[in-house]
Amino acid sequence: MRFSAAMVVMLFALSCCSQTVPSTQGKALDGTEIGFPKQNGKPLILMIGFSHKSSGDFDQWNKQLLSGYLSDSHVDYYELTDLAGVPSFITAMILHGMRRAIHGTEQSHFVPFYTDEDGWKKAVNYSASDNTYLVVADSAGKIVWQTHGVPSEEKIAELKSSVEKLTELKQ
User: Fold this and answer.
1) How far is residue 75's CA from residue 167's CA, in Å, rounded to a whole number?
2) Would you give the end-to-end CA distance of the chain in angstroms?
3) What's this model's pTM, rounded to 2 decimal places?
4) Are the C-beta atoms of 68 and 161 separated by less than 8 Å?
5) Which helix (H) or strand (E) holds 144?
6) Bridge partners of residue 26, in order along the sequence
7) Among the listed residues 75, 137, 83, 147, the one whose alpha carbon sits nearest the alpha carbon of residue 115
8) Cα–Cα distance between 110 and 49 in angstroms, integer?
9) Counting beta carbons within 10 angstroms of the beta carbon of residue 31, is it exposed (0 to 12), middle (13 to 18) or buried (19 or more)?
10) Cα 17 to Cα 133: distance, rounded to the nearest angstrom
11) pLDDT tens sequence for the chain (171 residues)
12) Cβ count near 1 (within 10 Å)
């Protein structure tokens, strides 16, 4: 059976959009309690890393685009890092280093998570620990767009477009 390009895109869109953000409770680096999904009507942008090696992609995305969403009141934006399975004495050192490296109000947008690693990996179509994964979801947690790896002009345009569509739906 041969698949046309349109069929492949449609199948990917259906699989992407059937995913939801795992229900997660945690604390941002500044101590703020955070929960997903928020159900507050705002689009949700999440950048997720599963290893220290993904931090290079985090930096590139922040330089290209995402830091602009930190102060946007129409969007909820968070960076998540997977600390599931890390021994507590190492977790304390990692968190200390993160707090030193991430300054000011950015700490309220950085959320380590310790549970449901498999759920997060499934939601982002995990393929490699070195990758950074980006997700745009509606306020109910339904994923409407996702990508992984380094930013490109195409990925940035797609992310902005998906956020704009969700923002327009709200109005």
Assistant:
1) 8
2) 43
3) 0.84
4) no
5) strand 143-148
6) 34
7) 83
8) 11
9) exposed
10) 15
11) 444 443 434 444 444 456 999 999 999 999 999 998 887 889 999 999 998 877 778 888 888 876 678 888 899 999 999 999 899 999 999 999 999 988 888 899 999 999 999 999 999 999 998 899 999 999 899 999 999 999 999 999 999 999 999 988 665
12) 3
77, 106 Cβ separation under 8 angstroms: no
Tokens 């955070």 sit at which residue? 34
Q: Whole-angstrom Cα distance, residue 145 to residue 44?
A: 11
**Which tokens go with 58?**
């985090």
Q: Hunting for tokens 């179509």 — which residue is that? A: 125
Query: Can you say whether the dihedral through the CA atoms of 51, 54, 59, 64 is positive or negative?
Result: negative
